[in-house]
Every structure is written in C-alpha cells, then in structure tokens.
Amino acid sequence: MLLVMLAASLWGQDSLTTISDVVHDGSGAGVTGTCTYTAATGRFLGAALDQIVGEPVVVPITAGIFFAKLVPTDTALPVGQYYQVVCAGNRGWKLTGYWLVPTSGSPLRLKDIWASTAPSPGILIPPPQISALGLTSGTYCFAVVNGVVQPALVACSAGGGTTTFDLAPGLFDSAPGLFDAH
After folding, report:
1. Are 165 and 152 in contact, with CB atoms under 8 Å apart?
2. What is d(CA 98, CA 114) in angstroms, rounded to the nearest whole number?
3. Domain around 175
4. pTM for this one?
5. I need a surface site. Which of 58, 64, 92, 110 has the fewest CB within 10 A?
6. CA-CA distance, 30 to 100, in Å (whole number)?
C-alpha cells in the first residue's frame, strides 16, 4: 500500500479531498440511496494538470453512511469548476445541487461542499493556478468557453479589443471571444 501511495505522489497525481458524513431522515434513521456526481463542464484539469472527465460517479449511502474522495475544484483549471450532483433515496426522496470541493487534508462533511445554485465563474485566478500554468508578470487574455472563463497561454496585444488566439494544444479548446485582462 505504501508503495502505491509513493508511486502516485511521484507521478504528480491529484490529491483527493475526503467527504465523510452520516445522512438521516426526519426520524433520525440513516437513509439508503446514492449520490451521482459529474464534472459540470464535462472535463477539467486537476491541480497536477491531470485530465478529469465528466464520467458520472455513483457513491452509495448505506444506513446513512456516506464516504467519497474527490478531486478538489478550488485548484482546478479552468477556474470555477464544480460537480453537479443528484442524491436519491430508496424511499423516493431526491435532492439536486452542486459540490464545490476545497483542497483539504481533513475530512469534510456534505454541508461543507454543498451549494443549491451553480456558482458563477469569475475571472479571479488563484495563485496556485498561475504557478501551475507557468505565467509570469504581464498581461494575459482569457477565453470564455461554454460560459466558463479560461486563461489563454498567450500574451495579449497591448492594443486591447477582442482578438482570437489559439490556446495551448491539449489544455483547452480553441475558442473565439477572448478579451484583455487588466
């Protein structure tokens, strides 16, 4: 087991955040059901620049026990990532929402990651993401792809205005609608 963990850390695999909770109904009994989550944008890059795809993942809830490990979304690229989730119980209850998963070395509860509305993407890029992209001081452009702001890995022209650039191959899809960030 130690060898597997060491190998994963050497390959730069994304760290995972543990979510551990107990889910009860109104009578205090533990519920049985599932939570199915998927990357809301279909795919994103984890902090180690691993490709995270939108394949649905089903997490069982058995006698109220919920346990999952997820790639954090706070350090994901493009910025503003989250998971869409549907939780449903064997007795007919259903709850939909969004998970915003922070990087954490300690287990979190569902209330720590749950949001009832989808977050609005912003243009703030956290410092770890800037470092991961190798960006230095200067002016950069951002692309809006499917409503998500993504950093382009090319410097903008100083003239301003709207320009189309090719983004880094394999990192993001090329898309029109780039704008200058100042």
Report:
1. yes
2. 6
3. 135-180
4. 0.62
5. 92
6. 24
Q: What is the pLDDT of residues 27-52, one digit of tens each?
A: 889 999 999 999 988 888 888 888 88
Does residue 101 contact residue 70 with C-beta atoms inside 8 Å?
yes
Residues 89, 158 share a domain: no
Percent of the chain with pLDDT strictly greater than 70: 59
* 121-124, long-range: CB < 8 A, 24+ apart: 121/78, 121/79, 121/80, 121/147, 121/148, 121/149, 122/79, 122/80, 122/149, 123/79, 123/149, 123/181, 124/79
Quote the number of domains for the chain: 2
Q: Which residue type is seen at 85?
A: V
- The owner of tokens 């509305």 is 117
Structural domain ending residue among the three candidates 115, 145, 162: 115
